Structure formats: structure tokens, C-alpha cells
Predict the 3D structure of the following.
Amino acid sequence: MSQVFPIRSSRRAHVVAQASLRGSLASVLSWTVAFVLAGCGSGSSTDPVSPSNVTRVSGVVAKGRVVDATVCAYRIVNGVVSESLGRCSQTDAAGGYQLQLDASVDALIVEAKGGSYLDEASGNRIALGVLRAVPTTPASETAYGRLFTAHVTPITDLIVRRAQAAGSIDSVRIGAAANEVIQYFKIGASSIEPADLMTRGASSDFLSTCYGMYLAGISALSSGSDLAATLDSISRDIGNRTMAYRNPAFTDGLTRFLNSPLNLSGVSASSINQCVGARPFTDPN
């Protein structure tokens, strides 16, 4: 029996939503401060890293949860992706990964490549190309080093694309790109985990649930085409303020998914407007 979606249109839900959005905006501001200090990956090394001098980066790769993707970190030099930082990680059955990085690197980008995911729009298992995320400020500092979460999704990849379109993957442009993307998707930080709506007991957190819905909508837009091409189109439309996802394919496809047996979360199609607003998919300006 379907559970009731916990973010009904009520004053309390809107207060929670606004608080969550403020938290997301606060996370976005951290993009402009600095990239994460990091370095080598997990595994053996000829130069052992002191536990107090590492950054552990972990998260999920999601477009549907991506299984068996290879996740690697690369150094950013003068706003350009440079050499690999070494040891990579494979995503598990839930899309999870973990990297252990030397804390001496000035800036990095996380890249997920390969593997496959269950597509919300078609129900087919699809091979992943490449998705990227630039980590935000570490979540916490401990005696064992920096502990930090970076989820890799089409939306974090959109942020990288927007920064590249502005000329550089540096902290200022990443911050500006995150602020662009959050105007439309409410998500601007790699520390927010999307709910997996194709599993029972999906997150009841407002932003996480909306995030899962956005990813399902992007699946509807990319149905029959390449995901990278769809993200290129959305990125251009964000820049032009014309927004490809105004296309009814987004909301219609999302509605079909939420009404289908693939949706095991209990979230119903009547909840769409809670995530996209009273005027769905219009220019925020």
C-alpha cells in the first residue's frame, strides 16, 4: 500500500521546504570559498598518508543509482582538469563510492564513468557515459582528516558544464554556476543526496525527494537520445533563460514514472508542484 508523501501542501511543509532551500543556498555559498584540499585515492601506496592528513570523499552516483561505475578524482590546475589523482573506486549496488585523498591538492573534480543504471523513463538498464561533480567545502574536520560528501548526478554535471561555458572550472565560476542551476532545480550543492524513488522507503527529506523527481524528469527528456546531449541542451537553455525542461516531456514523463510500477517510493504525481512551484518550469526571472 502506497505511503503518503510527507511533504503535502501545508504550512508546515512549506516552512520545511523553505528551511531546506535556505540550507541548500548556504551550501551553494561554500562553492565560492575554495575547492577541497585533496589528493591520492584509497588503496595501497608507496607513500603512506597519515590518517590526520587525508580527505575522504564519498557519495553516490545517481541517474537512477549507477552500478559498477569507475569514480576517479582529477586535479584542477588554473581552472582546467589536469592529471588523475590515482586510485579510483567502483560504485556498489546502491551507487555508493568512497575515495581517500591526500590533503595536499588545491582543487579537484570527481568523475564517474561507465557502469549502468535503471532508467526511470523506460525501465531499461542503460550504460552511463560520464558525470562529474566539483566537491564543496568539507562537511567536517576531524582528527582523522576531512570527511566530505560529493554526490555525482546530472545536476552536479550541469554545474560543471555551466562553469566551463563561463571559461573555467574555478571556485568563482563554480559558485556562479551553482547559483544559476539552483534557480531552476533547487539543488546547487554536491552534498545533497537524491532520493532513489525506485526503492521502497525513499527519503522523506523535501530536497532529496525533489532531487529524485528532477532526475526522473531529465530521464524523460533524454528518452531516445544521449544523456550528455540532453544536459548540453539544458545547460544552454539555463544560460539563455529559455529552459528546455519547460517542454511537457519533462512533466508528462515524470507523471508517467510516478504513476508506474517503477515508482516504489510512495510519492504521487500530485506532489510534482511542491517541487517545481505553482508555475512549473518557467523562467525564475
Notes: Helices lie at 11-29, 154-165, 171-185, 206-222, 227-240, 248-258, 272-276.
